[in-house]
TrEMBL record, chain A:
Gene3D superfamilies: Cytochrome c oxidase, subunit III, four-helix bundle. InterPro entries: Cyt_c/ubiquinol_Oxase_su3 (IPR024791), Cyt_c_oxidase-like_su3 (IPR000298), Cyt_c_oxidase_su3-like_sf (IPR035973), Cyt_c_oxidase_su3_a-hlx (IPR013833). It is found in: Cell membrane; Membrane. GO terms for biological process: aerobic electron transport chain. Keywords: Membrane, Transmembrane, Transmembrane helix. This is Cytochrome c oxidase subunit 3 family protein. It is a multi-pass membrane protein.
UniProtKB/TrEMBL annotation, chain B:
This is Nitric oxide reductase F protein. The chain crosses the membrane at residues 35-57, 69-86. It is a multi-pass membrane protein. Signal peptide: none annotated. It comes from the Bacteria. InterPro entries: Cyt_c_oxidase_su4_prok (IPR005171). Keywords: Cell membrane, Membrane, Transmembrane, Transmembrane helix. GO terms for cellular component: plasma membrane. The keyword Transmembrane applies. It comes from Roseovarius spongiae. The keyword Ubl conjugation does not apply.
Length: 185, 89
């Protein structure tokens, strides 16, 4: 009778261990940012609520749809690559990257609107956190788009799994950032 | 009619939860208690995060890690909820 050994905890983790170290590190950094944001809000809840009315909730809600759809395409790409559907996987990754660019365009419009209103990071502590958290996240989106294009080119299943995991982390951060910064008045 | 696979179902669930989040957030303008809507918004965010971890990141195949992440995320959302509700109580 053959005996199949039970996988260790680390072997159970999907993908490369180092990408999980990165994901956990990023979640901790953003988590600290959200905690700091809501902690400072305790000192001026009325000011934070007023400042939040200047944000573009509709644009941010559209961006949520854009990112979760982009994440879906990235996850599909891995599934298709594992099924040796390389062309479909590459197209899905390019589609995911294009949606990432769409996210950045909407974010750019949002920032331009703030600039037109004369709102800077010095206007109120709310906006300091707003620019810090959304700007840091947007920087990750830029990096993620480049990673998606890179793995569409060098499309081994391992590369796609690792690159897509980074993109899902960006997605995961956004679904927490959106309610904290845009919705919790 | 074929049933959508787990990945497609996850994506559809995320779309539905995102729509629900927007609707719940707008209820404040109709006079709903912000403590209730804020709690619901955070709960919906937690649900979305759990789906991304399980289906997009593949933790559904790693139950121990999934439980650990879900526990940490739930505790973190409770912390955020406490900080949010602080000035409203």
């Amino acid at each position: 009778m053959t005996h199949t050994p039970t996988p260790s905890l680390l072997e159970e983790l999907p993908g490369d261990l180092l990408i999980w170290v990165l994901i956990i590190s990023e979640l901790l950094v953003f988590g600290a940012g959200f905690t700091a944001f809501l902690s400072v809000r305790l000192t001026d809840p009325v000011g934070f609520a007023e400042a939040q009315t200047h944000l573009h909730r509709v644009g941010a809600a559209i961006n949520t749809i854009v990112l979760i759809s982009s994440g879906f395409l990235a996850a599909l790409a891995l599934k298709w690559r594992n099924a040796t559907r390389r062309v479909a996987a590459r197209l899905a990754l390019i589609g995911a990257a294009l949606l990432g660019v769409a996210f950045l365009v909407i974010k750019w419009i949002e920032y331009a609107d703030k600039a037109a209103q004369g709102i800077t990071y010095e206007t109120h502590p709310f906006f300091m956190f707003y620019y810090l958290l959304t700007g840091f996240h947007a920087a990750h989106v830029i990096a993620g788009v480049l990673v998606l294009l890179l793995i569409a080119w060098r499309d081994s299943p391992e590369n796609i799994e690792t690159g897509a995991a980074f993109w899902h982390m960006v997605d995961l951060v956004w679904v927490l950032l959106f309610p904290v910064v845009y919705l919790l008045a | 009619m074929t049933r959508p696979d787990k990945l497609t179902f996850a994506w559809i669930s995320l779309l539905v939860l995102s729509g629900a989040t927007t609707i719940v957030a707008e209820l404040v303008n109709l006079g709903f208690d912000p403590r209730v809507t804020g709690t619901l918004v955070l709960f919906l965010a937690l649900m979305k995060a759990r789906i991304i971890l399980a289906r997009y990141l593949g933790l559904a195949e790693a139950p121990s890690w999934r439980r650990g992440f879900n526990l940490a995320l739930s505790l973190f959302c409770l912390l955020l909820l406490g900080l949010y509700l602080g000035p409203l109580l």
